[in-house]
Amino acid sequence: MPPARRRGGNMASTRPSQPVLSFGAKSRVTKPSTAPSPTGKTKALEPLAAEISEKDTAKDISQSNVTESSQPHVAELAVRQQAKAEIHQPLSEEDKKATKVTKKELQVYWNEEESKSRGPKFHQDDLALEEKILRHFDLSSQYGPCIGITRLKRWRRANALDLDPPVEVLSVLLKQEGTGQRAYIDELLS
C-alpha cells in the first residue's frame, strides 16, 4: 500500500523536487554563427581548385544548369587529382589486354552479366553500353568501396588484391580517359 499523503500544512514540502522544463525563449539553442576554418586537406587542394575552376568553369556552366557556386566540391577535386596521377603511369600487362578488347566483346560481356541478374533493368534503357558496364562495376561490392576513389584506381586496387575485376571495365575506363572518373553512386551522394 502506498504511503499516505499529508493534507494541509506546507505545500512546498509535499511537492516533488524535480526541475521544471522550460520551453521559453531562454532555453533556445542556436547554431554557431562563425564559419569553420578550412582544414589542411582543403588548403592543400586550393591551388588545384583554382586551376580547375579557371579551365572548367566555362565548360561546366555550358553543360549544366549551375544553381550552386561554380567551385567543385572538395571530394571532386581529390578524385580529379587522383585521376591525373593515374593517367601518367606506364601501361601494364592488363592495360595492354584491355586496349585490345573490341566493342563486340564488351557486348558479349554485358549480355552475360545481364543474364545473371534477376530481371530486366528498365531504368537503363537510355544508357550507353559503356555506362551500363561502369555502373555495374560501381555497384559490385566484391571489388571494395567506390566512394571517394576513382574507378580506375578501384579497378587497379581490386586487381592488386587478386579479386579478378573484369578486364572489360578496364577497357572502358582506358578508352574514356577522364570522363566518368567517379562512381555514379559517389556522384549521387556528394
UniProtKB/TrEMBL annotation:
Compositional bias (Polar residues): 11-20, 30-40, 60-72
Region described as Disordered: 1-99
Record field: compositional bias (Basic and acidic residues): 83-99
InterPro entries: DNA_pol_delta_4
One Pfam family in the UniProt entry: DNA_pol_delta_4
Protein name: DNA polymerase delta, subunit 4-domain-containing protein
Organism: Aspergillus cavernicola
